[in-house]
Amino acid sequence: MVVLNKIYTKTGDAGETALGNGSRVAKHSARVTAYGTVDELNATVGMARLHATAEIAAQLSAIQNDLFDLGADLCRPDMEKDADAPYPVLRMVESQVHRLETEIDAMNAQLEPLRSFILPGGSALSAHLHLCRTVARRAERLSVELASMESVNDIGVKYLNRLSDWFFVAARMANDAGKSDVLWVPGANR
Question: Model-level pTM?
Answer without folding.
Answer: 0.93
